[in-house]
Design goal:
- The complex is a heterodimer of chains A (437) and B (452).
- Chain A contains 16 helices and 11 strands.
- By secondary structure, chain A is of the alpha+beta class.
- Chain A has 2 domains: 201 residues, 2-Layer Sandwich (Cytochrome Bc1 Complex, Chain A, domain 1); 200 residues, Cytochrome Bc1 Complex, Chain A, domain 1 (2-Layer Sandwich), CATH 3.30.830.10.
- In chain A, helix 3 runs parallel beside helix 8, helix 9 packs across helix 12 and helix 10 packs antiparallel against helix 11.
- Chain B is an alpha+beta fold.
- Chain B folds into 2 domains: 207 residues, 2-Layer Sandwich (Cytochrome Bc1 Complex, Chain A, domain 1); 207 residues, 2-Layer Sandwich (Cytochrome Bc1 Complex, Chain A, domain 1), CATH 3.30.830.10.
- In chain B, strand 1 and strand 2 form a beta hairpin.
- In chain B, helix 2 crosses helix 8, helix 3 packs antiparallel against helix 4 and helix 11 packs antiparallel against helix 12.
- The chains are: A alpha+beta (437), B alpha+beta (452).
- The interface between A and B is large, with 89 and 81 residues.
Chain lengths: 437, 452
């Protein structure tokens, strides 16, 4: 058995479900007088339809615009000496903060308040803020363009095909009523997880949660049922975008996050492209020097999973050569599989990282939140290291044989359109290629 | 009383310091929370030490340090670290090279054996030198369409002009082409010296045990005579100057204002922290964000920040004040006006009592979060060493902040917020027309790809 030497102590996760369906989880961690309070709503961009894409994220922004009682959420967190933020993804919208432990009750009160009572004041201004965010994050960035093209190529039916931040025209035209409706539909105690990690006593947290969240009624949450059909054949998108870099992403559809296979997929991704020791790095960056960077990672979502290879073409090289080299490495993987050393190294690396991530109450809360969104099982974060330990070479081979093939593959390339000063650009390229000799 | 509790019980359990016979200054902190051994070796070797025309040398040297030793080649080194579950990270900034590992305590000896090998016995193989150099050049070219990257380079150039702080740590493609393998070896020989370095350990081990292990692996590192070449003083901008760089194809204007700030050892530093906190340093609580983002919806990000400068070989360098945002071109002029208004209002009218109260409340509450992670503790210790401060300086700072009154904070705003500054606007000038008045100089420039 290819066991890693690293053992991870299980975490003691205390849980309570309120009558209205709110699930509350507490991990006591007393080494610093600090706490992370997190509310994870089981709603993300996948709950949007065309016309209102970006709503989950826009609503996340509105959650900071105040309720009748709490005008400025973040200012109060600041005054407590804390920090806070939120993020929206395909499957979830999560609100988090890190605060001194003395402030827990106040923050729980505030989180309960904004679960139901936001005013939606300043909607037009916030819509503009989000459009600026889209310009900055996606429209002025070649990689942003690549990411958008990748997901809309892989998914035909499933709303994972829409960008989390939303399509520009939807953001410009969605009205306040639609956002309010989204809030009314999905923000309910039975559609959320409350996570508290740090210097607290679980029993006290349960009592406070009951006080502030217990008064809300549960709601009927619309069932999500769209399923992505099986992919039948390779897919491909090529786009051109202002910039100087050429990027390629190659993605394979693999089992979803909650699958029994996901630990094996994540180890495979590490072996393939997780840093300097990986197969892709050694062959493509180090030996052939076709890419200036390459990585592979497992993107496990609630309904689907992807193994994504992402590379930046080395300046002066040919994108076709790079794509060929990536495909050859995948062929090699199919032929030669993985070695015991590679598997053990990947296990050690992942398990050590799990220990390192326990330094911070926020990161620990994130681990728990993700596990809950994907599996609804808090103990998954304790089971996961054991699942990693158990992965065998045969498990990895099974993944390779079943999922890493052309019928399951999507390739996206972003070609550069150099914005200006073409002459200088060409000189730069010449110089970059001169030193090859 | 609670403060002492935080300091002694929470942030760390124990601390010990020793200067080894080769001059390496070792500080070991015990933090019992997890079985982690974190080590940071900080060398006085930053991009300010790059020779003119060879910008990027410090960074290139650091990135080659783990690419081969007398015993192992580049891939073997990476594999050995991975086998142990040890993370190696290497970074270079303006003033320092920082080589750190995070290891499980059970593997500390094996991790340090490897780490000391790469630091003491690097061979800088020619093949790896060529590869890493080419990759760096490639990355620089690839990033030249990223307005975030380009504006940060241009801002430094405008703010520091011919000072060594002006160039990016990774250098320019032209300057990298000038660097030979011999330059790397020479840089290593001149700067990677134990008596030019500080080593900080934060782990669950007894400090004396940590020091013993460090000594075992680093005492062979040869002490050398350090040729100190002092870095010249910084001449921050005089007057009010605006430079608009044409950057075709982007649909936002990227705006940054830069000026002189103050250094960490200025007696007004904590007051200036409060000034910056209220003005633009506190995210949603700050005036700049409340105006530019919340009220007008002009930007997703907007801020001001200060740094405390640096102190090296007993010479102090003043820090900077920087503010910025990105916004659609149509709102560019108005947003710049709003930013300048906020700065001028702070200078001329000062702040309000409730703003000062909120800022104090933030700093007081934030004590709890300071020493949570192993790297946070290492940073606190490093800053204490850098500025010759006691290890609990961060608590003393907050004690001082709690006593400040509005008058002294407002006086500090008046004294140190910028009256002289440079403004950088990066935008597509076919869409953006700068139409504000009242500056000493407004100049439109083309952004040239290969201009150093």
């Amino acid at each position: 058995m290819l066991q890693s030497f690293i053992e991870i102590k299980p975490l003691d996760i205390k849980e309570k479900t309120l009558k209205n369906g709110l699930k509350v989880y507490v991990i006591e961690e007393h080494s610093s007088p600090v706490v992370s309070v997190q509310v994870w709503y089981k709603v993300g961009s996948k709950n949007e339809v065309v016309g209102i894409t970006g709503s989950a994220h826009l609503l996340e922004h509105m959650m900071f615009r105040g309720t009748k009682e709490i005008k400025d959420f973040s200012q109060i967190i600041d005054e407590l000496g804390g920090m806070d933020n939120a993020f929206t993804s395909f499957d979830e919208t999560a609100y988090w903060c890190e605060i001194p432990s003395s402030a827990v009750e106040k923050v729980l009160y505030m989180e309960a308040d904004r679960m139901r009572n936001i005013t939606f004041d300043g909607f037009d201004e916030e819509r503009n803020v989000v459009i600026e965010e889209r310009r900055w994050r996606t429209e002025n960035d070649q990689r942003g363009a690549l990411w958008e093209a990748l997901f809309s190529t892989i998914f035909w039916a499933h709303p994972y095909r829409n960008p989390v931040i939303g399509w520009r025209s939807d953001l410009e035209n969605v009205n306040l009523e639609k956002i309010k409706q989204f809030y009314e539909t999905y923000y309910a105690p039975n559609n959320a997880y409350l996570i508290v990690v740090g210097d607290v006593k679980a029993e006290e947290v349960f009592k406070i949660a009951e006080n502030y969240f217990g008064k809300y009624e549960s709601k009927e949450i619309p069932k999500f049922y769209t399923t992505e059909p099986k992919q039948r054949g390779p897919r491909r998108t090529e786009i051109k975008k202002e910039g100087f870099a050429t990027y390629i992403a190659v993605a394979y559809r693999v089992p979803k996050a909650s699958s029994e296979y996901s630990p094996a997929v994540s180890l495979l991704a590490d072996i393939l492209g997780g840093g300097k020791t990986s197969k892709l790095y050694k062959s493509i960056v180090y030996e052939k020097q076709l890419a200036s960077s390459i990585s592979a990672f497992y993107y496990g979502l609630k309904d689907e999973g992807l193994l994504i290879i992402f590379a930046t073409l080395q300046q002066g090289k040919d994108i076709n050569e790079l794509e060929k080299a990536i495909n050859e490495e995948i062929e090699n993987l199919r032929k030669n599989k993985v070695s015991e050393e590679e598997l053990i190294r990947a296990k050690n690396n992942q398990l050590a990282d799990l220990i390192y991530s326990r330094e911070s109450v926020v990161r620990l809360g994130f681990q728990l939140g993700e596990a809950l969104i994907n599996t609804d099982n808090p103990n998954y974060i304790n089971e996961y290291p054991k699942l990693i330990q158990k992965v065998s070479k045969q498990d990895i081979e099974k993944i390779i044989n079943e999922y890493i093939n052309d019928d399951n593959k999507t390739t996206v390339i972003v070609h550069p359109i150099p914005p200006s000063d073409i002459q200088a650009y060409i000189e730069g390229l010449k110089k970059a290629s001169e030193i090859r000799r | 009383m609670i403060l002492i509790l935080v300091m002694e019980v929470k942030m760390m359990d124990n601390i010990k310091e020793k200067v080894l016979s080769n001059g390496l200054n070792v500080i070991a902190v015990q933090k019992k929370k997890l079985p982690i051994f974190q080590l940071s070796l900080v060398i006085n070797a930053g991009s300010v030490d790059d020779p003119k025309g060879k910008e990027g040398l410090a960074n290139l040297t650091a990135n080659l340090i783990d690419e081969g030793t007398k015993k192992y080649n580049a891939i073997e080194i990476a594999e050995k670290f991975e086998e142990l579950g040890t993370n190696l990270s290497i970074s270079v900034d303006d003033w320092t090279t920082n080589i750190s590992i995070k290891s499980l305590t059970q593997n500390v000896e094996k991790s340090l054996e490897l780490l000391s090998d790469i630091i003491l016995n690097p061979t800088f193989p020619n093949e790896e030198f060529e590869k890493v150099k080419k990759r760096t050049i490639s990355n620089i070219i690839s990033q030249k369409s990223d307005p975030n990257y380009v504006s940060s380079i241009l801002l430094s150039q405008l703010l520091y002009k011919d000072h060594p702080l002006a160039h990016p740590t990774e250098g320019y493609e032209n300057s990298l082409l000038n660097i030979k393998r011999e330059d790397v070896i020479e840089f290593y020989n001149n700067f990677y010296i134990p008596n030019n370095s500080t080593l900080i350990v934060v782990s669950d081990l007894e400090p004396s045990k940590s020091i013993e292990i460090v000594e075992k692996f680093f005492s062979k590192w040869q002490k050398k005579v350090l040729n100190i070449k002092q870095i010249s003083d910084i001449n921050y901008p005089k007057g009010k100057e605006v430079y608009i760089y044409h950057f075709p194809g982007i649909n936002q204007a990227f705006v940054f204002l830069g000026s002189k700030g103050i250094s960490r050892d200025n007696k007004d530093f904590n007051k200036f922290r409060i000034v910056n906190y209220i003005l633009g340093g506190s995210g949603f609580s700050s005036r700049i964000v409340k105006t530019i983002r919340v009220k007008y919806g002009y930007a997703y990000w907007a801020y001001s920040r200060i740094d405390g400068g640096y102190k090296r070989y007993n010479k102090v360098f003043e820090g900077s004040f920087i503010a910025g945002f990105s916004t659609k071109v149509e709102s560019g002029n108005h947003a710049i006006e709003l930013l300048l208004d906020e700065i001028n209002k702070a200078i001329n009218e000062g702040f309000k009592e409730d703003e000062l109260r909120s800022a104090k409340s933030y700093y007081e509450g934030s004590i709890a979060r300071q020493g949570q992670t192993y790297s946070q503790v290492a940073n606190i210790i490093f800053n204490a060493k850098l500025w010759n401060l006691p290890y609990d300086y961060w608590i003393k700072d907050i004690e001082e902040i709690k006593k400040l009154n509005l008058n002294e904070v407002n006086e500090t705003a008046k004294k140190f917020l910028p009256k002289d500054y440079v403004i950088l606007v990066l935008a597509d000038t076919s869409q953006f027309k700068f139409d504000l008045k009242g500056f000493d100089k407004v100049e439109i420039r083309n952004f040239k790809l290969n201009e150093n």
